[in-house]
Amino acid sequence: MKYAITLYLIIMISAVTLAQEYKDYKYSRNQIDYFQIKYNRSSDDFSFTGYGDKTVTLSGSTEDIDISNNTVNFKNNILFSDSSLFIADATYNLFNITDTRVEEIDGEITVTFLTTESRSRLERFKKGNRIHLFEDFEIAAGDFCRGLAFSITGKIKVSGEVNKDIISLFGEIDLSPTAVTRGNTITITGDIDFDKESVMYGEIYDSKNKGRGQKHRLFRDLKNITYAPALSYDRVDGLGLYVTFEHFDIDSIYPNIELKLGYGLESDRGRIAVKAEETIKRNISLMFGAAYYKQLVSEDTSIVGSAENTLFALVAREDFKEYRESKGGKIYFKAIPYSNFKVETGYAFYDSKFLPSQRHLWSLFGGSKLFSYNFRQYEDVFRSTNIAEIDSASIGKIYLSAFYSNKDYLELYYDTYTESRFYYENASDGLGSDFEYQKFSLSVLHNQKLNNNFSFTNKFKHANSDGYLPYFTRYGLGGLSTIHGYAQKEYIGTRYFLLNSELRYHFVNSGFGFSVMYDAGKIANDRKLDSEIEFKQSAGLSLFFEEDFKLMIAKRLDRSEGNSPRIYIRFNRNF
């Protein structure tokens, strides 16, 4: 019976993890504006603007359009013909369209067509789009179009699902009862016919019937409230049961709201987290948000995620995280000011509570081993100090975080890319904090594809602090994602640096591979990070499958006791 329960829980966790990966998946942002169409619902005025070596524009009204024999003329000049758009002396290949961006301001609709200069990315986008310029076509029931559906004069009938915008510039669009559209539905002079049973997450832009998109908004908004169950398993809460309700407003008129409710069966503690975010400036995704929570939190989330750690706890009675209960809230701004670059800043305040480990919890293959104590890495005297700090701590802080990545998820997982993360926080009495300190961290990861078989990955991370850093917020070195030949968080400190290097061999077209690893670093606790601090190193080997599974064996390179090789298994993380 216990094996069946464990198998069920593992399947549930895997499903939740895959669902989150699907939800978080986005097309590459490495695209450029190709050409743009603007039209006004009330006046029927419109313009075409092309980009490239120079910007060119044509303006007029729908009365200037003449359609005949697979050609669209504008003021007696060819506008669309064959596979191209002609603006003045510039030509734009319509099959190079990769994506679209739609905005409406005071009744004027702007549709920006995007492209990419990378031929490999272009081919991948084109495979996902359905483009039939002058012919009628259908997305049949059960069919999924993962890109956009586009035509100039053809009729587009949708009975299946379209992931992005549906555009027929001068033709009709028909949405059947089984249609699911996740983007906008747009035409200039055509008509849009939809069934009220169709599921539309975007707006309708139709020049003939003003306000039809708003008419259907009721159906769409009701379906934009989603919920998702989830579970976790750890040595403090035991089995945690959760449900998340989410409302996303595609027009950014109302705030996006998320409510997460949960309960820890072993700790007998309720959990709640609620946040609301309102878009202020759409072109840079500038948002203002506020959140309140009473949650079980860990400083180790960046090392091992909840789903992966739950698998370890269920299967092997191994929990790699340290926990405390946090009750508080925050207000913040976040934005994407440049492609591939995200930034967030705000003020946060929370009270903490220490919760003990439930050491006798069940595990499938844990044998007689018990779960370790919460904050196991501290010696008894420091552990007592840490528990007292957690139970008495009120932290008020301002923070700044930034993230950059040019990784293209449409490309092979080992292609060349760079990622960088920065985090800074400042806690002081003036911000309502019982402790006064500053801390920051910076990490840079670069993966270099050497050829179709080899890639070389390097990650450098440095973290520092000033003032008195509470024990439960100090840095750990050793184990997962740090120096693999050492025990998990074997060393604790207030500042450190870390280098990870890995030479990987990939079996082409299989996803499998093996690697040679080298880790090195130093950590200091309440002292300078100088030459007197011992340099810690480890080396190892791994077998992996893409970024989903990795088996590692590593050994420390010093002569201290307890230097037997250590074995780790990772899911959903490869470096």
Short description:
With 575 residues, this protein is mainly β. The chain contains five helices and 41 strands.
Chain-wise SSE layout:
Elements: H1 2-24, E1 32-40, E2 45-50, E3 56-61, E4 65-68, E5 71-74, E6 77-81, E7 84-87, E8 90-93, E9 99-105, E10 108-115, H2 119-128, E11 130-131, E12 137-139, E13 144-145, E14 149-151, E15 156-158, E16 161-162, E17 166-168, E18 173-175, E19 180-181, E20 185-187, E21 192-194, E22 199-200, E23 204-206, H3 212-223, E24 225-234, E25 238-247, E26 256-264, E27 269-281, E28 286-297, H4 306-316, E29 324-338, E30 341-353, H5 380-392, E31 394-405, E32 417-427, E33 437-449, E34 454-467, E35 475-477, E36 491-493, E37 495-506, E38 512-524, E39 536-545, E40 549-556, E41 566-571
Parallel strand pairs: 11-14, 12-15, 13-16, 14-17, 15-18, 16-19, 17-20, 18-21, 19-22, 20-23
Antiparallel strand pairs: 1-2, 1-10, 2-3, 4-5, 5-6, 6-7, 7-8, 9-10, 24-25, 25-26, 26-27, 27-28, 28-29, 29-30, 30-31, 31-32, 32-33, 33-34, 34-37, 35-36, 37-38, 38-39, 39-40, 40-41
Helix pairs in contact: 1-4
